Amino acid sequence: MPEQKIKHWPENERPRERLIKYGAESLSDAQLLAIILRTGSGEKGVLGLSMSLLDAFKTLRNIDAASISELSSMKGLGTAKIAQIKAAFELGKRLMGESSDGKPVFSSSHSIYSYFAPRFKNLKKEFFIGVLLDAKNRLIRECKVSEGTLTNSLIHPREAFKEAVKESAASVIFVHNHPSGDPTPSRDDITITERLKSAGDIIGISVLDHVIIGDGKYVSLKEKGVL
Question: How many CB atoms lie within 10 A of CB 111?
């Protein structure tokens, strides 16, 4: 028997009406997902679909981490609903990464990847970027250090830290892309990172990470133990 549509529920039980009246915090995970999904599919109403999604993936974190193909395997989830889910989770991440004054806060390698990956997508050349941060890891500004195939001789600490010194940055994160799509660090990538860390230690500007961005994935040299 088809599940009763939400519009036929008592008004004070409908998720959207409850959110407006009592606040988003009063809703369950399933009810919040139902608002995002908007409609059900076939014999399953939107709340039933939301509960099935939670039942299949167990946690919101797992839903966020699920690939497009994994979500597509759920009956009732088409392209539009998957896009709605991904957009909602991404907005949440961006909010968590934003300080009260609106400046991005980079507290993890994933936050760097999320911020830069869209801009590096489909680029045919390598770009080496310095991300200048204050004492609270808030973005001061970013600067291009180099463009083109990276070699140990191409990235000079003087150029890499010039803007960081000028801006009195507390720390810096270096980011670059691999146009091949494979973010596995090369020997030069590791040598450059070690050299920049040593230079940063001398001038008193910490190198927090060097993140290499590929096609849909990244490598943190801090997490690899290079820093």
Answer: 19
Contact 161, 172 (CB under 8 A): yes
pLDDT of residue 206: 95
* Max CA pair span of the chain: 71
> In terms of DSSP bridges, do strands 127-133 and 218-220 run parallel, antiparallel, or are they unpaired?
unpaired
Q: How many H helices and E strands in the chain?
A: 9, 5
Residues β-bridged to residue 175: 129, 211
- Structure tokens, 172: 């810096």
Phi first, then psi: give them for residue 19, nearest 5 degrees: -60, -45
- Taking the alpha carbons of 159, 162, 164, 165 in that order, is the dihedral positive or negative? positive
pTM over 0.70: no
Average pLDDT over the chain reads 86
Q: Is the pLDDT of residue 43 over 80?
A: no
Q: What is the pLDDT of residue 102?
A: 62
Measure Cα distances from 154 to 96, 123, 145, 157, 188 in Å. Answer: 36, 19, 10, 10, 10
